[in-house]
Structure prediction request, 504 residues.
Amino acid sequence: MSGTVIRRIVIVGGGTAGWMAAAALAALVKRPDLSIRLVESEEIGTVGVGEATIPHIRSFNQRLGLDEDVFMARTQATFKLGIEFRDWGRLGDSYIHPFGAYGRSIDRVGFHHHWLRLRRSGAAADIHDYSLPVVAARMGRFTRPETDPRSLLSTFSYAFQFDAGLYAAYLREYAEARGVVRTEGRVTEVEQHPDSGHIRAVTLDRGDRIEGDLFIDCSGFRGLLIEGALKAGYEDWTQWLPCDRAVAVPCDTVEASIPYTRATALEAGWSWRIPLQHRVGNGYVYSSAFLSDDQAVERLMGRLEGPARAEPRMLRFTTGRRRRQWLGNCVAIGLSSGFLEPLESTSIHLIQAAITNLVELFPDTGFDPADADEFNRVMDLEYDRIRDFLVLHYNATQRDDTPFWDHCRTMAVPDSLAEKMALFRERGVVARYRDGLFLEPSWLAVYFGQRMEPDAWDPLSDRAPDAALADTLETLRTSIQRAAAAMPSHEAFVRACCAAGGHA
Ligand SMILES: Cc1cc2nc3c(=O)[nH]c(=O)nc-3n(C[C@H](O)[C@H](O)[C@H](O)COP(=O)(O)OP(=O)(O)OC[C@H]3O[C@@H](n4cnc5c(N)ncnc54)[C@H](O)[C@@H]3O)c2cc1C
Prediction:
């Protein structure tokens, strides 16, 4: 330890990232001599979107000790078993990327190899019929998973669809109750140490000057500290992920809420549909090189299933990531660290990953560069791996009905993705890695869902006799059908355990 303990943390920004960071730091690193201050500007506001999550958020909430039913009631949340992708491989296609497995290994050979083999002889059903979360989602059913690994009900996980503004407000209450001090105001000046370049203080429009040891930049796309002051630099990934705009609008709910998000491929991007308890969130993520803003608004409004609840909100972004997310005594968390479009609902996860890494590598005032290097290495991997997975959705398509899809189908992909796709095409192998999101079932969902076919399967699958294998798969398929049909409807489950207004 080359410095002294950190006594003053200053968080700039009070969106989802700012309040998640404040709540977690208050719960996990707070000491009596540590002050945490959060500065935010109501006049600037937050990005105001971000409703779908992945299962990791549950461990974040658990670490904070939040009661799940109360959290859901407070944020108008619904459960999420996966994402339905419509029209991605070809117009008319639909598949669900589930939070869960496909079948189970047989004789230590991955399920999908057996499935590939049987399917050639016409003895296997659709691969999605062997996934409990897919079948339950399609039936509109939900129950919480079981922990006994022998139970079929242990083969899936779940996440939430919620109002991110209400989540931030809920975490604000939590953080303030643990001593975080919020200051309203707009940061107009960032003062740096003349030698080290470290941030020394921020000044607000009303003249207050706030000093700190560690600064957390949660100021959103503008990256007020990390870019505005420290010039960390930005890696632009538009050549692989061409969408650069979105229009978002909530509408009334007109049907029972379903336990999954929907992402429909449109002519120049894709639209999301996220059902919450009190409304449905909708948006169109598109490429301005292929569609005008007016066309995007018209298309989105024409797709709404119920009356709009607000004016459409326009957003612009550049997909990519900051070259350094931790620089000196400043750590960028949230949109200030980079942006990957919400196709797989990963932004809130990236906030959580950054917070977890910061807590693990929590520095002292010496700010050993080794901590920052390790943080940046892990966060870069997180970003790179999500990027590759997202690019796969665009590139693995047979659509040729618009110039946008012609571009996506024929574009060069990152080498790291090209290698993964080649490996899968050769013999159905899914590349494994240690750090970062998306395990084998996720890659399989998109590969098979978007019609990528391997040339062969693992030859070890050939040891199992055809008839016995066919029986095993059929028993599994029918057990999954029965287990899903026995679950309550998603709507009834939410009403019973976590309806908004039902918890104090
Ligand atoms: C179209 C779209 C859809 C998305 N959908 C999803 C999704 O489904 N799931 C998901 O996980 N994520 C999603 N995201 C990402 C998600 O919205 C963000 O990750 C999340 O909201 C965090 O934002 P933030 O807190 O980093 O930034 P913001 O919400 O922009 O907050 C920035 C904060 O900084 C403050 N600030 C800025 N400048 C100053 C200043 N000068 N002085 C004082 N305060 C200042 C602002 O007032 C605000 O409080 C989506 C993003 C977009 C663009």
